[in-house]
Structure formats: structure tokens, C-alpha cells
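Subgroup meeting minutes
Present: P.N., E.W., G.H.
Scribe: E.W.

1. P.N. recapped why we're keeping a running log of single-chain structure predictions: easier to compare across weeks, and new members can see raw inputs and outputs side by side.
2. G.H. added today's entry (198 aa).
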Amino acid sequence: MISSFRRVISDPPDRLNTRKGAAVAAAPFLYADLAGPGLTVEADAMRQNRFHAVLFILIASAFVALIKRLTGRERPLQILFVNNGIGLVISTLAVLWVFQPPSALQWVALAGLGATMALAQGAYIQALGRAEASFVVPFSYATLVFAAFYDFLAFDVRPEVLSWVGAGIIIAGGVLLAWRESVNMAASPAAGGRRKQG
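Output recorded in log:
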């Protein structure tokens, strides 16, 4: 669902078709259904969770579409600086009332985390600039696999069976996407040659 919605809002207007238009038109009705009250407390909680999930999808999709469009107009370093500047302002306002000064070791960890995150975001921006968003975005789900791996290393938390199944699906999806892209790239010059001959 995430990839489909991202594709809908990131495509230029001339590539929007009836199916994509229907998906966008249905969004307000889905929003109303998820936001409405349920019959029981459990149903209300489940509905609120679904509502927050859909809200996250809409925000994340808009963010990816915006970054994808900016990669064609702005330099990657400028996108990275503005993006992180906005994030800094929002996170500062969120923690202003509960902030406690970090220790020296925590400052070192924060600096390392910030540098790693900046490198990762820079690579993500470069990837969005060089490929379609519908191809790049699914690879971000690999963060779940790495989170489980680091969780095991740092806290000795062993993933459950469902976590292993999910990791397998994520890895298989990435391999399938890479294979499909390589097939499409190999077929593109051949198709172009046939069109020129015809």
C-alpha cells in the first residue's frame, strides 16, 4: 500500500490514470472510516492504530514524493541540509520540556549516530535521484532487518519466528525488485532498437 500510494502522488499528472485517480479519491473515505468511533474499547483502539498507520503512510509518501521532485531541481547537499534543519526544529520543540544534558559518552554516541544518519540520508537522496521511487523505497524496509540484528547484538534479544519470516519477505522482495529492474534495463535498449527499425 505504501509503495502504491507513493507512486500515485509522485507520478507527473500526465501519467495518472483512472486507477490512480480512484485511489486518491478513496482516501478521504478511508480516513473517515478509520477516524470514526468503534463499537467497543478494543475496536476503538484497533481503529486508532489503523488510523495512525494510514496517517503515517500519507505523510511518508508525501515526504518521499517531495524529495524525489527536489532531486531533479536542487543539489543533494542542499536537500540534506534543509531536511535535517526542519527535523532539528521539530525535534527540539518536542523535547524542549524534558531535555536533560547528555554525558560526554552520550555526546560521542550522538555525534556518531548523527554522522551515520547523514551518510545514510545522503545515499537515500542519491538513490531517489537516480531511480524511480517505487524501486528505491521498498529497500528502506531493510532497516527492520538491521534493527533486529543490532537488537540481538546489543541486547541479546532473539527474534521470534514471525520476525524471521518478515525478514525473509523483505530480503526476497529486495532481490525480486533488483532482478526485475535488471531485466527491465536489459529489455529497454532492445525495445528501443526494435522501435527504430519499425
